[in-house]
């Protein structure tokens, strides 16, 4: 297939482009060229805020993977997240539909649910958390991703193009592993200790582009395990104050350190599975 990746020069984008290029013709559509050009991958300058850039980039594409956005970690002004992430996603969907693209894969986020904000008034309603869980984001970044998914669903209803939404958990890159470990190991860290490696995430995007018959679906993409050393239900009860009434006890019996976010849907429909083990990642640091 011909696959266009918006934001292919970014931190995650370069892993996605490299993974796709093994089997497909890939075009990297980004504001900046990649720092390390992948063999056989062309680059075109494209701004997701400019429809004409996207119309040109998407010509003859079979699939578009939309990664270009303002990242949560950048701490951008609220209005910037809404403007770029929301309008940019609409532009991608509109230009792809006009170009006759068969499928768009949107990069959503774990932030869509709002649970990573750790608000006292919004805690997990079930464990593990899956795609049926309510989404109640407060921070503008999460809201921008929620709106993008809603827009994706509107294009699904039009019936001319498939849309798939990928929700990565906290992405660990080789160069950010040490920083991530320092973050989760900080004393009294109040968080949900989820992660996904960039390599495993890239394979999920590849599956989302390739697997036939998937349309209008959202997928949490995360590791099987938590990045916390204790059993998940133990630290979750301490951090949350109490556990939700609905808990899949068998899930946590099979893996006491299981992630609070389930990847079962991605396993079932995309045929994807993570390969990482956080204890092994820790050992890499020496």
Strand fraction equals 15-25%
For this structure, what is the CATH class of the domain at 2-117 and 129-171 and 196-222 and 261-274? Alpha Beta
Tell me the overall shape: globular
Question: What structural class should be given to the helix and strand makeup?
Answer: alpha/beta
Distance between the termini: 41 Å
Low-confidence stretches: none
CATH architecture of the domain at 2-117 and 129-171 and 196-222 and 261-274: 3-Layer(aba) Sandwich
Radius of gyration: 19 Å
The CATH homologous superfamily of the domain at 2-117 and 129-171 and 196-222 and 261-274: NAD(P)-binding Rossmann-like Domain
What is the strand tally? 11
Q: What value does the average pLDDT take?
A: 96
Provide keyphrases for this structure.
single chain; about 290 residues; alpha/beta; Rossmann fold; seven-stranded parallel beta sheet; two-stranded parallel ribbon; 10 helices; 11 strands; about 15% strand; globular; Epimerase_deHydtase; Lipid_A_modif_metabolic_enz; NAD-dependent epimerase/dehydratase family protein
